[in-house]
Design brief:
The chain has 2 domains: 72 residues, Outer Surface Protein A, domain 3; 82 residues, Ribosomal protein L6 (Outer Surface Protein A, domain 3), CATH 3.90.930.12. The chain has 2 helices and 13 strands, in the order E-E-E-E-E-E-H-E-E-E-E-E-E-H-E. It is elongated. Helices cover 20% and strands 40% of the residues. A hairpin with a 2-residue loop joins strand 3 and strand 4. It has a 4-stranded antiparallel beta sheet with strand order 11-12-7-13, with helices on one face. Strands 1-6-5 form a 3-stranded antiparallel beta sheet. By secondary structure, the protein is an alpha+beta fold. Belongs to the universal ribosomal protein uL6 family.
Length: 177
């Protein structure tokens, strides 16, 4: 029995959800997202509640039950509130700058790293050492944040690099004389 799937998704005010065949479309103030519904689950929209139930007792159907409900919840939350990831840049001379649809990162390399910002994701440099990646699609926001972090991941000796704001880096001692 899915613990996640059995709870209905509440649709907040300002968000409209429609079911067109095998596609579920959510529209809100932050945009429009679509989700392809698996053949293994059944989705019902009743007022401002969306419920998901498996069509059979197969293991895959039960797995898709919880997965579909979680994706649906993220979709509804994304078009109403949005998602964001905060990245912290640590290191002498390490900084970031956003100009239009390009993110320029100075990370100690001989060249600047230039990252093209995708259309449905917004990146803001609150400080030269603090980036905020935000958007309606949770998967896309996390993917963009992970790609930016991969240019210079945090290292355990001095803590230099790009890390998530809530991430804790376990520090190592280093060489002894």
């Amino acid at each position: 029995m899915s613990r996640v799937g059995k709870y209905p998704v509440t649709v907040p005010a300002g968000v409209s959800v429609t079911l067109n065949g095998g596609q579920l479309v959510a529209k809100g103030k932050l945009g429009e997202l679509t989700l392809a519904i698996s053949n293994e689950v059944e989705t019902k929209i009743e007022g401002n509640l969306i419920s998901v139930s498996p069509k059979s007792d197969a293991k895959f159907a039960r797995a898709m039950w919880g997965t579909t409900r979680a994706l649906l919840n993220n979709m509804v939350k994304g078009v109403s509130e949005g998602f964001s990831r905060r990245l912290e840049i640590n290191g002498v001379g390490y900084r970031a700058d956003v100009q239009g649809k390009k993110l320029t990162l100075k990370l100690g390399y001989s060249h600047d790293v230039i990252y093209d910002i995708p259309a449905d994701v917004n990146i803001v440099a609150e400080k030269p050492t603090l980036l905020v990646v935000s958007g309606a699609d949770r998967q896309k926001v996390g993917q963009v944040a992970a790609e930016i972090r991969s240019y210079r991941g945090p290292e355990p000796y001095k803590g230099k690099g790009i890390k998530y704001e809530d991430e804790f880096i376990v520090r190592k001692e280093g060489k002894k004389k």
